[in-house]
Write a structure and sequence with these properties.
Elements: H1 18-33, E1 40-42, E2 48-51, H2 53-59, H3 63-66, H4 72-75
Antiparallel strand pairs: 1-2
Length: 79
């Protein structure tokens, strides 16, 4: 990733062009997805909003079946 895509402390993300924000999101998803361990993120409503390949593989799940779930049993796994 180019340094020019990274906002400095004084730059408001809302001011970045949409294509740069999309690049940032794609980069972060790639980093998370290629991490060696399982990663998942829940939002303020306890819904899973992100799950990487390692997480899905560990529990034998498909990402689309996990996203949006709030309870482990809904997604087909138990922590």
């Amino acid at each position: 990733m180019n340094d020019d895509l990274m906002p400095d402390e004084e730059t408001n993300l809302a001011l970045l062009p949409i294509h740069q924000l999309k690049d940032e999101v794609q980069f972060l998803h790639a980093v998370i997805n290629h991490a060696g361990g399982p990663i998942f993120v829940k939002n303020a409503h306890s819904r899973i909003i992100l799950a990487n390949d390692s997480f899905c593989s560990l529990f034998g799940l498909i990402r689309v079946d996990v996203l949006g779930k709030t309870k482990p049993a809904e997604a087909g796994f138990v922590l």
